[in-house]
Amino acid sequence: MGKLVEEAVAEALRDGSGEAIRLYVAACAERMAPLFIGMRANALGREADLDFYAESVRDLWHADRPLADAVERVRLLERFPELHPDEEEVTDVADTYAFFAVLSLRYALLAHSSGSADDAVSCGHTALTAMGMLDQNVVGASLLSEERRLQSLSLSSGAAGLWDASVTAGRERFRAAVGRLPR
User: Fold this and answer.
1) Domains of the chain
2) 93-114 vs 70-77: helix axis angle to the nearest 10?
3) Who is most buried in 10, 23, 120, 157, counting CB within 10 A?
4) pLDDT-derived band of residue 159, with 50, 70 and 90 as boundaries?
């Protein structure tokens, strides 16, 4: 799969402001959100987790200031079962992509709170890893290159059009992942 987060993107994150980092991770989390929300929509007893996840992604878009409760949100997110797999290896499609989405949100919340470029890069790596896996398993998919493009876009153009592009990309990756589910 090669390099994940492009060096130019990682450098821009290291050199960027806290607001640039927060915008970058908000966009990454938005693109990954359908993989958690969609894969867990019908899971019994997960309604509060779904609401918490959606609210957290929404609140990340307030990039002008760190979330006051981001550390508490990380603590709550770390209780999600996706971050505590059982003894068997996770191989189920829904579980795999829900895991990547939760991990992405975890890094996004950490980066949003601290302004850490390293946490932002980890958020980007998570999204790129998931898209690389989808590309390998979906004929003709180019989700990895699209994720790279959107990561660069999120650091170059501000918020104009980024939310719409992220929502659209999130829907596309969810459709691709659903196509991998057993029928």
Assistant:
1) 7-178 (1.20.1590.10)
2) 160
3) 120
4) low
Q: Is residue 124 within 8 Å of residue 100, measured between CB atoms?
A: no
- Taking the C-alpha atoms of residue 51 and residue 59, their distance in angstroms, rounded to an integer, is 12
Please give the DSSP secondary-structure letter assigned to residue 67: -
49-83 residue pLDDT tens: 999 999 999 999 999 999 999 999 999 999 999 99
Name the region of 88 (left: φ>0; alpha: ψ -120 to 50; beta: rest): beta
* Average pLDDT over every residue of 153-165: 82
81: buried, middle or exposed (CB in 10 Å: 19+, 13-18, 0-12)?
middle
The string of DSSP letters for 84-139 reads S--SS----HHHHHHHHHHHHHHHHHHHHHH--HHHHHHHHHHHHHHHHHHHHHST
